[in-house]
Amino acid sequence: MIAVAWRLGTSDSAAFMPYLQALLLLLLLAIIAGAISSLLLTILIVIWAVAAARSNLRGLPSLPAGLAWHWVKDMLVSNTVHMVLWVIPLALVFCGIHIWVAIVIGSLCQLLVTTLRATNQVILMRWLYPSTPIQQTEWAQLGQRIQA
Amino acid sequence: MANLNPFVVATGAGLAAILWFCLISVARAYTMRRAYRSALATVQAGAQPHLIAY
Question: A81, A102, A103, A139: which could join A89 in a potential S-S bond, CB 3.0 to 4.6 Å?
Answer without folding.
Answer: A102
